[in-house]
């Protein structure tokens, strides 16, 4: 009985060691084959098209998808310098519509966005764009006076205008936001109440309503999440010494 008991314990010990040694490798193999290596990821907003082509990932053919993107646009900053929205494929963008003569919605959006600007003041990969729809009135000089209290020149924050841009078409078709001249009400324009978070490809990854109390906090959290996603998808290339 003693010998049998000892043999059984020995077999159990060997089996346990085998499981410990083989299980990690087996799980790694399964994850790679199934493609279930997953991370938290933000949605992509707007229309999408599946062209019928594929690309390979983790040894599997994945259908290609063409997503709605915001095209690069040239604006003029409050300091009179040109600003190229989405010209840099290494930075995230937070954009929203506003105009300086709006003392309610626009003013509130600017104040709340200042919190975000201050929290990411040291991170040059996050840029903020306050885009006026009142391009005839909001000259760079007007915007400079309007934005002075927020010291945007100390942050990656741009207050931009450009009468040559069809701002309403850009807002509606590219940003997917409400923007139109208000011919009946007391305010000259109607604008959307959202901040948009754009990734390095110009895709809309988050929409945050200023009227929802928790959305500004969610914007901060999801900027951080998207920064992690960008690092994961575009790891820095380490140059090896020859």
TrEMBL record:
It comes from Sphingobacterium siyangense. Pfam families: SCO1-SenC. Keywords: Membrane, Transmembrane, Transmembrane helix. SUPFAM superfamilies: Thioredoxin-like. The chain crosses the membrane at residues 12-31. InterPro entries: SCO1/SenC (IPR003782), Thioredoxin-like_sf (IPR036249). The keyword rRNA-binding does not apply. The keyword ATP-binding does not apply. Belongs to the SCO1/2 family. It comes from the Bacteria. This is Protein SCO1/2.
């Amino acid at each position: 009985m003693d010998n049998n008991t000892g043999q059984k314990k020995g077999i159990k010990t060997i089996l346990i060691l085998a499981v410990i040694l083989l299980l990690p490798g087996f799980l790694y193999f399964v994850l790679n084959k199934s493609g279930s290596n997953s991370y938290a990821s933000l949605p992509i907003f707007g229309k999408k098209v599946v062209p019928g082509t594929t690309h390979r990932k983790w040894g599997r053919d994945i259908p290609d998808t063409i997503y709605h993107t915001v095209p690069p646009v040239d604006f003029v900053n409050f300091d009179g310098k040109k600003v190229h929205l989405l010209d840099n494929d290494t930075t995230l963008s937070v954009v929203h519509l506003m105009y300086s003569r709006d003392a309610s919605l626009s003013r509130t959006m600017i104040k709340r966005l200042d919190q975000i600007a201050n929290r990411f003041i040291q991170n040059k990969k996050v840029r903020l764009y306050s885009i006026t729809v009142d391009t005839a009135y909001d000259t760079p000089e007007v915007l400079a006076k309007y934005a002075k209290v927020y010291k945007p020149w100390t942050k990656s924050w741009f207050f931009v205008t450009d009468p040559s841009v069809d701002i309403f078409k850009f807002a509606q078709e590219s940003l997917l936001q409400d923007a139109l001249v208000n011919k009946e009400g007391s305010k000259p324009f109607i604008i959307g109440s959202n901040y948009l978070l754009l990734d390095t490809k110009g895709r809309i990854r988050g929409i945050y309503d200023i009227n929802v109390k928790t959305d500004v906090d969610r914007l901060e959290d999801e900027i951080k999440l998207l920064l992690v996603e960008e690092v994961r998808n575009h790891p820095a290339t380490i140059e090896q010494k020859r």
